[in-house]
Amino acid sequence: MTERTTEQAPSRSSQDENSAAGSSTIDTVTEPDPARGRSHGSPIQGRGERIFRGLTSGSGLLVVAAVAAIGLFLLVQAVPSLLANNANFFTSPVFDTRDAANLNFGIRDLLVVTLLSSLFALAIAMPISLGIALFLTQYTPKRVSRPFAYIIDLLAAVPSIIYGLWGIAVLAPALLPIATWLSTNLGWFFLFAPGNLPVLTGTIFTGGVVLAVMILPIITAVTREVFSQTPRFHIEAAQALGATRWEVIRMAVLPYGRSGYIAGSMLGLGRALGETIAVLIVIRAATTPSGFSLFDGGYTFASLIASAASEFSQPLPTGAYIAAGLVLFVLTFVVNAIARVVAGGKVNG
Amino acid sequence: MSTATGLDSPDRPAHGPTFQALSTGRKIKDKAATVLVTLAFLIALVPLVWVLVTVVGRGIGAIISADWWGRSLNGVLPESYAGGVYHAIYGTIIQALLAAVIAVPVGIAAAVYLVEYGRGRLAKTTSFMVDILAGVPSIVAALFVFAAFISIMGGVQSAFMVSLALVLLMLPVVIRNTEEMLRLVPDELREASYALGIPKWKTILRIVLPTALSGTVTGVMLALARVMGETAPVLVLVGYSQSINFDPFSGNMASLPLLMFSELSNPEPAGQFRIWGAALTLILIIMILQLGASVVSRFSAISK
């Protein structure tokens, strides 16, 4: 198909392009740009070229504009509510927007529950992802590792609402013995202290395990990608020194892939911070503020917004939730930006 | 080597054997690492199999019931086992397709810009923002659409608003996939075209994009699969309806995730029946898209 196009094209297009473009754009014909790497810019720059270039650059700009607009519109909608807020936005644990004339909302508890559940998920998912990435790149032949990697990717294809349903209906009862054991034997440690829920299911603990399953494929995909790019001669040099497979990994693969692994973990963290529906279904609401225990309940930024979505009618209470959304946006922005900087070009996406 | 050392001291070699046996400690570490990484892989299979078995086991009864694929829940009582979900399937598909209609051309054009034209600061910013957009949580995208198009511009909640939020979630997936495929197109093809005097834009449209077509289609299908299961946008941006609504620009419209979420507040066993049935239906639709994507990528003109 490609070849056919190449053969046909000159007879029809090159001549009229030449005649059309030749007169008008002589000055732009020779414009050597030393910075150009792979674009071997055709010397002919007619109207079609300008239009096409404009359209594609415009689409690129649109992406930039979209991200800027998200921040801007959320800010514009949040400011009036923040000004009308009677509580301290950063330190108050209550989120009361029932009375539009007397708003009291703060994000302390949201921040605690969001960070606690996401970091707990990260703590579970990081070592397992590392193991899977090593297994798929260093221990299995390519013929086998392709389908295996596809299976892990399937974990990312399951919608989050299904993880939520599974988490509360199936996983939570199964985790109850573990939660009970941790609570009775390690209750002196603040993470496993008695929480603000009457039961040990539907806690941050349960939610964190569900989140760990959801971010596992993300961390694995990025880490696997970077590990598979380890220079062949690093590995062979280690092998020539008589290193065992594990020593090859420690001397060649891990040092090369460390930044990618951290970047992948940050991407996973970003995903966990913003996860909405699974957390909303799994983690129960609590009446008292969180005490930094994994057996607490409560709302994350995302789940609180989703839980109130049906009541978005008055501007001021809605603005309170938009303010929470703005904080979440900033949080994920920072985490993703860090991931990109850490990766330093080794990771794409 | 052996003759030289043998002449000097016939009883013992000048140095030890070149290859020594592995010490026990190193052997144990190596074996332990093998066991651990294999275990990590097996652990990851547990939730996947567990979720799929749960959904299939609890949902199979619903999706083989007579009315499941051809009826809506119009007039069906909460405790009744009647009705079907075709209204929600329609909603899920139309919302995703509307989003694709906007996201695919813009995404492909942005990818062309990044690969073929983008140089300097603007291109770097764009690439950075694509990464940021990929990390924007779906609830934030939904809130943005709510703030911009409903609060400020005075729009009403509708399926189209959901599609607008889905556009933001689809764009980075489409851009990154297309970008990757465009970078795989060999430069020889471009050069051959330029050598024939064909302008750059025509080369991109007629040579580069067709060569990368199957990869692009794969990316679009994966993006569709990703947004179909999104629940946060439908919660914020459209109301639930038990009956069919063909008009995405006005009125309430069901979708599979929204149906599942509304049935969560149904205390009757029939609610659970519908939830897991809808879950299995959603997984089936996503699996079909995923399979389609991998079939299409088989026909790729360029290999990785």
From TrEMBL, chain A:
Q: What Gene3D superfamilies does the database record attribute to this sequence? A: MetI-like (1.10.3720.10)
User: What terms describe the molecular function in GO for this protein?
Assistant: phosphate transmembrane transporter activity
List the transmembrane segments: 60-83, 110-136, 148-168, 174-192, 199-222, 261-283, 290-309, 321-343
One GO biological process term? phosphate ion transport
GO cellular component terms listed in the entry, alphabetical order: plasma membrane
| Keyword flag Membrane | yes
This protein is called what?
Phosphate transport system permease protein
Upper lineage is: Bacteria, Bacillati, Actinomycetota, Actinomycetes, Pseudonocardiales
UniProtKB/TrEMBL annotation, chain B:
**Could you tell me the membrane topology recorded for this protein?**
Multi-pass membrane protein
List the molecular function annotations (GO) for this entry.
Answer: phosphate transmembrane transporter activity
What are the BP-aspect GO terms?
Answer: phosphate ion transmembrane transport
Transmembrane ranges? 35-64, 84-115, 127-150, 156-175, 207-228, 275-296
Which InterPro entries did the record assign? MetI-like, MetI-like_sf, Phosphate_PstA, Phosphate_transprt_permease
Residue ranges of the ABC transmembrane type-1 domain?
A: 89-297
Keywords, sorted A to Z: Cell membrane, Membrane, Phosphate transport, Transmembrane, Transmembrane helix, Transport
Domain of life according to the entry: Bacteria
A GO cellular component entry from the record: plasma membrane
Under the heading CDD domains, the entry gives:
TM_PBP2
Tell me yes or no: is Iron among this UniProt entry's keywords. no
Name where it's found.
Answer: Cell membrane
- Please name the SUPFAM superfamilies in this protein's record: MetI-like
So what family is this one in? Belongs to the binding-protein-dependent transport system permease family. CysTW subfamily.
What does this protein's UniProt record list under function?
Answer: Part of the binding-protein-dependent transport system for phosphate; probably responsible for the translocation of the substrate across the membrane.
The name this protein carries in UniProt is Phosphate transport system permease protein PstA
- What is the native source organism of this protein? Actinomycetospora succinea
